[in-house]
Design brief:
Elements lengths: L1 H10 L6 E4 L2 H9 L7 E5 L9 E4 L13 E5 L3 E11 L5 E3 L3 E5 L6 E6 L5 H18 L3 E10 L4 E7 L9 H4 L4 H9 L12 E8 L6 E6 L1 H5 L4 E5 L4 E2 L4 E9 L2 H14 L1 E4 L2
Antiparallel strand pairs: 1-4, 2-3, 2-4, 5-6, 5-7, 5-9, 7-8, 8-11, 9-10, 11-15, 12-14, 12-16, 13-15
């Protein structure tokens, strides 16, 4: 994460203010010098995933349980929405962006709960987000897919949070909702084939299926038959045999011409299906 943030600063890509520290004690000393105001965000420079390696520091005591090693401090951003754009770039340099998606996060696990496409934002904000994502892609000169996660601030500015150079959770909706799903697009890009149409055929909402916080062991998907009876609902199970609290075990996509109805059904799905352990 530290390398990413420094790259954005070098390339003039908008991102939240930050400082990288080689060791935890350097951050502690910076706090003694009052170089940071509470609250701020602590991030481990390596090893982070699915909300791991990220903590909001509200007071000095919050630093105590954090691991040693390289980290960064980042300014807390008052934001309206967390957004993401999947960018495809092939070997010849052709670039296409998918529509902006809106991400709703679980308050405890810091994981994405819902991905909504298209994001419920104004057109000019969506255009700005896609333009920023394209700039990030061209700066990296990557080949394949690049998921660019962003904040929409209260002033409608777009700030890049982080990227993932691969098919991504924020693009899973595309399997059912898009003309070209992200997995086909990735293959087109790396094989230097013409990129496919990125626009959506229909509105889509994705629900992440994660392990129930009170269960660990051999997985059982409770009520999966019930959600399959709901209109426009398609479950995807990842084949992991063992569940544990908040482990990603699959996702469900809901498609509907009415995005509001898709979001309503998604909430029904979330309440109905449970990823638990047997016995």
């Amino acid at each position: 994460k530290g390398v990413q943030k420094q790259f954005y600063a070098e390339k003039g890509i908008p991102t939240a203010d930050f400082t990288v520290y080689a060791e935890k004690y350097e951050l502690t000393e910076a706090l003694v010098r009052k170089e940071w105001d509470y609250p701020f965000v602590w991030k481990s420079c390596t090893g982070g995933y699915d909300g791991k390696g990220v903590s909001v520091i509200r007071e000095e005591e919050d630093l105590i349980p954090l691991p040693e090693g390289a980290c960064l401090a980042e300014k807390m951003i008052p934001f309206k929405n967390e957004l993401a754009v999947i960018v495809a770039r092939n070997v010849s340099g052709e670039v296409k962006t998918y529509p902006v998606v809106e991400m709703e996060f679980h308050p405890e696990a810091n994981q994405v709960e819902y991905v909504i496409c298209p994001a419920r934002i104004e057109d000019h904000v969506a255009e700005k987000a896609r333009a920023v994502a394209k700039k990030v892609s061209e700066s990296f000169e990557h080949v394949g897919l690049l998921a660019v996660e962003m904040f929409q601030t209260e002033d409608d500015e777009i700030l890049v949070n982080e990227v993932a150079p691969r098919p991504h959770n924020s693009g899973h909706y595309s399997i059912e909702a898009s003309f070209t799903n992200q997995f086909e697009q990735h293959l087109r890009a790396i094989l230097d084939l013409p990129l496919g149409e990125t626009e959506s055929k229909v509105g889509g909402v994705m629900v992440n299926l994660v392990g129930d916080e009170n269960h660990e062991g051999q997985v059982h998907y409770q009520n999966i038959g019930k959600i399959m009876q709901m209109p426009g609902v398609t479950p995807h199970i990842y084949g992991k045999k063992q569940t544990r609290p908040f482990r990603k075990m699959g996702h469900v996509t809901i498609v509907n011409k009415d995005l509001g109805e898709a979001r309503r059904i998604a909430e029904e799905v979330k309440k109905e299906i449970k990823v638990i352990s047997r016995g």
